[in-house]
Every structure is written in C-alpha cells, then in structure tokens.
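Input sequence (346 aa), recorded before submission:
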Amino acid sequence: MVIRYPKLVKPGTTIEQMVMNIDLAPTFYELAGIKAPFCVQGESMVKLFKGSKDWRKSILYTYWVDINFPQYPRTVAIRTEDWKLVTYPDTEEKSELYDLKNDPHEMNNLIDAPAYQEKAVALQKEMDRLVKDTDYKKSYDILDTTKKQGLMLKYDFENCDGRTIKDLSGNANIGNISNATVIATDKGAALKCSPKTSVTVKQSDSLDTSNCPLTVSLWIKAESDGTVLSQGQAHKGAWSLFVEDGIPCFAVIDTGRAAVADGMESCLGKWTHLVAAVNHDKLEFFVNGKKAASVPRGRNLIFFGNKSLTIGKQQGEQVLGGIIPAGGFKGLVSNLEFYRQYKVNL
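Predicted structure, token format:
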C-alpha cells in the first residue's frame, strides 16, 4: 500500500506491519477527527504513521462459496508475518502450511511434516480466536425450520397394481406409472424401466425441499444411459440422478449454474446403490457405500414452481437444458427412499 500524507508520513518511509484494505476507513475517520461507527471493521493506521509497534500480529482470510463458481470451496486461513495456514472446512482437501520467511512463494506445504505440527496447532488456535472475535459464520444459508424433516417417500415396489406405486412413508406420495412394469428380482420387487418409462409423483408439501437438506437413496441396475430420477424445473432450480457413459451422476442446477458429482465407475449391468445428498455447504454422492464425490455449495436447494418428482424420462420443463440426458434410462430401480434431511449413512 502506498500512502502520501506529509503531515505524518515522511517521504521514503517503509512500514513493515501488516495492513488490510479494511484499515482505510478507520484511518480516514481518525484523520478527519470523527469516531468510526461500530459497524466499521479494521484499525486506523495513524498509530503506524506515528511509529507505534502496537499492531496486529495475524490476519484472518475467508473466501465464501460463490454460487456461480461452486468448484471453489469455502476457505478459512490465517496469515502472520512469517506463516500462513489455509484450511478448506467443507471438503477433504488437505490444509496448507507455509513458512513465508524461508518459502515466500509457498512451494513447500509443511502441513504433514512432524517438525511443524506444533506450529500448525498454534496457528489453528489463533485462527479460531479470530473467527470468534469477528463473529464469522460458516453459513448464511436459510434453513426452513417450519418443514418436517425425515423420510418423505419410500417405494419398495411390492404389491404394485401396475398403475400406481404405494408410498410406505405415510405421506401419501403415490407414484403414477406410465410404460413400466414391476418384476421380481434378487433385490426384491423392482421397477423395470425403458427409455419411454416415467413414474410421476405429484407436487406435495412433503416433497418440497426448498431451503431444506435433501437425501435420496436407491438401488439401480442400469442397461443404458439416461435419467433415473429428477425434480424441479431447469430454469428455476432442479436436481437429477442420471447415468452418462455408464457412470452414475448427481447434478444440481440452481440460478442457471450446474454442479455435478460424478460416480467415477460404471454401473452398467450390475446392482449399484446410490445415495445423493444436498446440504447447505456441499453436494455429496455415494456409490455402494463409498463417497464418490463432494462438491461445495453455499446453500440448500432453492426451488420454485413445479416440484413434481419423476422416475425415468424427464417431463417437459424438467429437462435440464441439455446438460443432463433427457431420456429415461433402461434398467431396474429398487428400494427408493426420499428424505428431507441430510442423511448419508444409508
């Protein structure tokens, strides 16, 4: 930062203490003889101009998840004169520890080095102090506490009459079958799907996940690519479970941006258990009990308009703008559960 203020700053002076752009406002207030309002953060640099050494020893850095760039995770870091610790609380990414005095370009991450564990712990304690002092909140997501959490829909496909599927959750979310049959399998009764298959569950209060966490669990045995399960409208907010190039995937589209979690391995020709979950800080996807992907998010789902749930081919405006296959997949679906709750241990 370059400052010219002849009354207090002599030409050619270099001040080594760490300052931030939020220090500008308090500085201007003090120079103007005005008390800074309570809401103004930062510290006045006037004391530094006068040669004081009484100054901050650490800086808190935070980066919030941007809905337009969900691939960049929430970041909380601390910087001192000689050290930097960077953490990614919502992911499994490794933290970063740098000795800035000897490694100014941050080329050598010391987080796993035994000799620096005490330093990492000390920096973490200082970071926790700054987080508390600045009233940092890990989420500004709006959670609708008026909505009941728990199991909202459950299909085991037993005793199906060929036209409707009974909801065992007690919420009466009946499924209306089109171009599909129910058959016996080694996983119990299963819905046999073709590319023209659809099971539509009408919009209901219990299927409304706006500003709530969501978890979906099911078994599939896919024979081809296509949409397995979807809800919402592409231009207003939607999610979809689908198979692409033989790989199971989970996608959320919100405010026109897509976040996709990839299942990593083929599910064609074999029974595969899928769990897809959305919480305020991440989108997670589990395949056969193992976490396949975690994508940062800054909030729960926000849906408007049509919230009907569809198994198989997406209906009308549910088609997710060409990003996700619109056609229904060919294969089997069994033991479907829909939770308005963050629940990944299924």
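Checked by second reader. The chain has a mean pLDDT of 88.
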